Amino acid sequence: MPEKPAPSESAPARRSAVRVLLRLWPYVRPVRGRFFTAGAVAIVASCLSLVIPLVLKWLVDGPVADRDPGGVWLGALYLLLLGIAEAALFGLRRWLVARPLSSVEARMREDLYGRLQRLPIAFHDRWASGQLLSRGTTDLMVIRMFLAFPLTFLVVNGVTILAGCALLLAQDLSLGLVLLLPVVPVVVLCSYFERRYGVVARRAQDQVGDLTTVVEESVLGIRIVKGFGRHRSQAEAFRRLAELLRSTELSKARLLATIWALITVLPELAIGAALVLGSVRVADGGLSAGTLVAFLSTALALRWPVDSIGFLLAMSQEAVTATERYCEVLDAEEERDPAAGTRPAGGPSGGLRFEGVSFRFPDAPDGTPPVLDGVDLHVRSGETLALVGATGSGKTTLTALVPRLHEASGGRILLDGEDIALMERERLRSLVSVAFEEPTLFSASVGENVLMGAGAAAGQPELDRALGIAQADGFVGRLPEGAGTQVGEQGLSLSGGQRQRLALARAVVGRPRFLVLDDPLSALDVHTEARVEAALREVLKETTALVVAHRPSTVMLADRVALLSEGRIAAVGTHQELLRSSAEYAWLMSGATAGEGSAETGDAGR
Ligand SMILES: Nc1ncnc2c1ncn2[C@@H]1O[C@H](COP(=O)(O)OP(=O)(O)OP(=O)(O)O)[C@@H](O)[C@H]1O
Ligand SMILES: [Mg+2]
């Protein structure tokens, strides 16, 4: 597997946090009623805690000063009721937001998944799968937690702090000002910290993605890892990344600790100063004891809202970077369908036609020659054409252009005279069926895997016919539950040849007009291969087919053969003609040395 760079490493220019978070609005919008109600409930609950000092003031200056036990009990009852009301309201808030927010997360995840399905192969070539996985899991969790907790409490605590400050100033202006002294340095420090924290948080999230990639690759490639005794080097790679992530997390924690210390210490000092100043003034008689009690308990009630600002900002910053990472995938360019207005089908050039087709991989280094460079080829309507070429000559790449898994960089490809670049993808892909070298099966039953290649109307008869053509009916019948047996990642493992035959069945089940097979029989023994070929001949009669072939036996399926060499079609003809006229072809087919060095075209120079 080629080393895939994590495109996220080049951290994007930092945008305003609010602007990034506004991207979440479309998802929050449907639940905005509950969401804002919950916020309002939390604000009321939090402000209730500010009423407590007022009751205390009344209690100290009234019943306590007057030595009235009945009044003291009444005051205590008020305090109890306030406490209960506060707790009940916070409980209500939690109940209000829990369900809507999990639906927000689910919808965001759905959108991400849908997006991943529609993004072009070139995108998936470029992005490591772990980076995508971590966006769909941890990042979305961070976003949901942000909506549930830090977002609400930033607002709630902000309102509470403002209301508290107003109360403090109203109770005693000079003491209030002493207490508010640290506000300016705290705000400055917070904004400085927020920027630094954002950078580190983003780095940590990217590193989680890299770590996920390593885990995923070594689980998928567990046979290779074990077979080559590579567990130690894999473990080493994992350890390195984990260590990197740990040190990033530690620097996150250090930043958080610093800011937390400042945010806690500065107000604490101010409270101490206010306490001394207030006591002196109570002793002088300039201030009532009740006012001082109320003042200090208001200040203490504000401690949590102030202290929490630090980590609320940190969590918000993480949500900002998680949202950025999420949106990077949503903003990647999708496969686009051409504007309506296609050309009429049919015409003089039926079949599958390549005209001057060239292709180079978007991520190929500068200066490398294109993989395909002016391919001209015509597969006549109803004909089967074999495509032969040295390994690495671009056969798979050429076949992938037909269903537009990659977009040709030059020239055009016509299906029955219609340019595929102007066709809707869905229609194109219903016309063309493919089976790739790597037979991929999904975690589903055998039948479901095969019927994936046909429309919704296809059923048992189509399935039986396709399994018959691929000579898969025998072994499928012997599976524990026949065609209903689960295969793929979560189910029974099949042999390479069995998987290949199911992939072939999937390609032919929909009776496609155009069939593209990339070396479909490579994993079969000669006897099975002969039987598949005999059955396949019947299918090939009905379609226009391009079949990549490495072996003479597969070539025999075809009416004509084309030789791909150095990015273009070097020769076309029947097997016999090419054997006589092309040294490279004869060399590829027989393994015998072909006089001139013309045969060595494969990987060399590419
Ligand atoms: N995703 C990719 N990005 C960049 N280069 C690629 C990519 N896939 C293939 N290539 C390069 O394109 C060239 C053609 O590859 P291709 O898979 O088409 O060969 P092939 O003819 O099918 O070979 P084989 O007979 O071994 O299957 C190779 O040199 C390969 O290194
Ligand atoms: Mg190939």
Q: What separation lies between the terminal Cα atoms? A: 17 Å
User: Which CATH architecture of the largest domain would you pick?
Assistant: Up-down Bundle
The description of the largest β-sheet is: 6 strands, mixed
Fraction in helix: 55-70%
* Corresponding CATH superfamily of the largest domain: ABC transporter type 1, transmembrane domain
Q: What structural class do helix, strand and pairing data support?
A: alpha/beta
Report the strand count: 12
User: From the alpha-carbon coordinates, what is the Rg to the nearest angstrom?
Assistant: 35 Å
What is the fold named in CATH at topology level of the largest domain? Answer: ABC transporter transmembrane region fold
Bound molecules: adenosine-5'-triphosphate, magnesium ion
Low-confidence stretches: 1-13, 342-347, 592-606
Mean of the pLDDT scores? 84
Strand arrangement, largest sheet? Answer: 6-9-10-3-11-12
Number of domain units: 2
Quickly count the helices. Answer: 23
Please give the CATH class of the largest domain.
Mainly Alpha
Shape: elongated
InterPro entries: AAA+_ATPase (IPR003593), ABC1_TM_dom (IPR011527), ABC1_TM_sf (IPR036640), ABC_transporter-like_ATP-bd (IPR003439), ABC_transporter-like_CS (IPR017871), P-loop_NTPase (IPR027417), Type_1_exporter (IPR039421)
Membrane topology: Multi-pass membrane protein
Main location: membrane
GO molecular function: ATP binding
